[in-house]
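Students often ask what a holo structure prediction actually looks like on paper. The answer is less mysterious than it sounds. You provide the chain, you provide the ligand, and the output is a string of discrete structure tokens encoding the 3D arrangement of the protein together with adenosine-5'-triphosphate.
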Amino acid sequence: MWLTVATVLIAEALFFLPSLARARHDWLERHLRAGQIAALSADGGKLQNGIRADLLTLAGVEAVTLQESDRTLRLTRAGVTPDGAVRTDLPGDSLPAAAAGVIGGLVGRSDALLDVRGPSLLDEGGSVAVLVRRAALDHFLSRFALRVGAISLAVAGAVGLLLFCALTLLLVRPLHRLTESIAAFRADPERAAPYDGVTHGDDEIAVAGRELAAMQRELRAALWRNARLAALGTSVAKINHDLRGILSPALLTAERLQMSEEPGIKRAGDTLVRAVERATTLVRSIVEFAREIPVAPQRARIALRPVVAEAADQALHATPDLAIDNAVPEAMEIDAERASIVRVLTNLLRNAGEARAHHVRVTAEQEGGVVAVTVADDGPGLPDAVQAALFRPFVTGGRPGSTGLGLAIVRDLVRAHGGEASLLATSASGTSFRITLPRAARHTAPPAMAPQPPVELRG
Ligand SMILES: Nc1ncnc2c1ncn2[C@@H]1O[C@H](COP(=O)(O)OP(=O)(O)OP(=O)(O)O)[C@@H](O)[C@H]1O
Ligand SMILES: [Mg+2]
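The corresponding structure tokens follow.
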């Protein structure tokens, strides 16, 4: 508000001197005309002395000389002489001259007389000259300056107040709500009330409001998801603990059955051991997934082709009808944790089988410092809902018994190796995923990679 008041006052101050000069000019002109009327009324001094003095007082002048073509009329207060009077011409009194007169008036003597001269309005070629007291002009100008100053202050105050109210209403208050909401959200993101300020319109505050509201919504949802995941992780960890206790005797029994001479019982033992192992693996994978900090993989230089073969083997337990082409070159090596990459590939291959694909082909090629592995199937393509939230945990196509963790685990494990998992393409004729893994560093130049004949594994 004070800034606005100051700005208006400065603007008014710039107009102050010209308006003061204008007022001075008008005052002098008024006295010139009043003097002319007084001279004409006195008619060459034929009136009594007292009346002539009254005429001069009413006109506000000390003496007047009216020069016309055929006569000269003079009227002078007793004892007044034009000696030392300061000459001022009208209408030659231009604005700069008038301004100079105002400034000169500040330094000149206030008891001096001003000799004001101008043309006669009645007689062309005639002139009028009056003597006026500087003190009278100074008094008029100081009252004028006071009045203008008071009006300027009032206007500045009113404009400042109006602007202050407008700025407060349109700018300060909305900004205050924005900052309040940001501070409250930072202090307690889960419980802070959502931003409810201005969000409609195209101005900056509305845009900032919309973005803030959206950000709060998304962050709150992410926090909620994380809290749920953390809770899930804790409960699954407990289940894992108890389940191991429950499954240990089952595993022991199954292993005994495996040792049986009877082929039927031995097969049942094998199946039971695999089932128990799958159960423990499943629970372990959920516990690992729910862990907040991913464990750094224990990397080693490994050949990729046998890893794909092992993953294919595991995937075929779940989906025995799937044909898997392992087209990874024999010499291709990666720098990775074997068990993790087997899990990654098993998940991708099993997904293809579960989506009722008939055929999957796994290929790999070197791209700079990484090995890019592609898993392409001829299945029905990803459901729209899965595509929209790809690699997010608990997103499934609705197959009974699926947890929706497979792809999220794939991405986490690949990223833990410094690589990336992505969807290459999906359509009604198939889906292909691509993962990048760090290539094993070689001491010698890598041999040329001849394409390997695909190895078909059938369950
Ligand atoms: N190759 C694929 N072809 C078609 N759909 C796929 C393919 N891979 C994944 N999907 C779809 O993506 C969903 C999510 O896969 P994801 O592996 O994350 O979870 P899931 O297979 O449902 O459960 P989980 O792997 O945890 O047992 C699947 O339910 C399936 O609908
Ligand atoms: Mg899966």
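The CA atoms of residues 131 and 399 lie 112 Å apart.
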